[in-house]
Amino acid sequence: MTITQLYYVLAVAENQNFTKAAEKCFVTQPTLSMQIQKLEDQLDVQIFDRSKKPIELTEVGKKIVNQARNIVNESYRIQDIVDQQKGFIGGEFKLGIIPTIMPTLLPMFLKTFIKKHPKVKLKIEELTTDEIITRLKEGHLDAAIAATPLEDESIKERVLFFEPFVSYIPKGHRLHANKKIDVKDLDIDDMLLLEDGHCFRDGVINLCKAFKHHTEDKFQLESGSIETLIKLSNEGLGMTLLPFLHTLDINDKEKHNLHYFNEPSPAREVSIIYHKSELKMQIIEALQDVIAGIIRGAIAFQNVKIISPLSK
Questions:
Q1: Could you tell me the maximum CA-CA distance found in the chain, to the nearest angstrom?
Q2: CA nearest 255: which of 234, 236, 276, 280?
Q3: Are 141 and 94 in contact (CB under 8 A)?
Q4: Contact 145, 271 (CB under 8 A)
Q5: Cα 207–Cα 210–Cα 213 angle in degrees, nearest 5
Q6: Which residues of the chain have pLDDT under 70?
Q7: Residues with Cβ within 8 Å of residue 227, at least 6 apart in sequence
Q8: Rounded distance, CA 174 to CA 184, Å?
Q9: With a threshold of 0.85, does the pTM exceed it?
Q10: DSSP 3-state assignment of 140?
Q11: Which residues contact 167 (CB under 8 A, 6 or more apart)?
């Protein structure tokens, strides 16, 4: 049994196709198939049910894949130990960022990080929290930036900053005249929301549910982007809540529609998260240092109350 064979098994399990798996592993399909067959012969079990289209794992195959993932990840740790010993910060690093953080935070730190750590090859993807957790567990991401806490034992979290919620209330709305907003003033039936799958949406719903029950049968408008929510709000279709960093780029005319909460301000906790195996920690720590240094000057709120990003 070899690490290479286990790596091939993981590739087939992910792609459910021998040809696609071989392309990903940069080997010919016969080579990959032969190595997996040798492993199956050695173990005297079938890892894959080749009669199914697409290919499926057998019951014992599922257990083998889970263990293979642990072994392959641990094999990477050897190089990781050497890199840390040498103080080397470089190589490929796969980073996921949730959609409500990507457009505001990434431009703030990316140029600085690249300049400070030119040997790191960042590969960045915009992903939902659920996608991020899955990819971290499968070893397809090295780290991610997401709203926390996530309450997942396999994921470790390092808090980067607390980002307050800010109300966006257009003229004509019942709350527009209020200089500051109380959480108890919010009504979910009066709120424009991000579509399902966004953890910021879940945070807003959790915030409103803490004070009022809402009905499911009333008109409710949802969108995939915060920018669209602002435009819909400007049309008089309701108010919305924004993450604080999104308010920094709003034009002067729209800034009159921003209303801050009375303290403690509801806020989300934003963290860099990674698998408990703690691979590539030198790059994770470098990212944390750069982001923390930049964000410190952008968010000055201290008295905040963290709202859970988990759907309740």
A1: 75
A2: 234
A3: yes
A4: yes
A5: 105
A6: 197, 209-223, 300-302, 312
A7: none
A8: 14
A9: no
A10: coil
A11: 175, 181, 239, 240, 241, 242, 258, 259, 260, 261
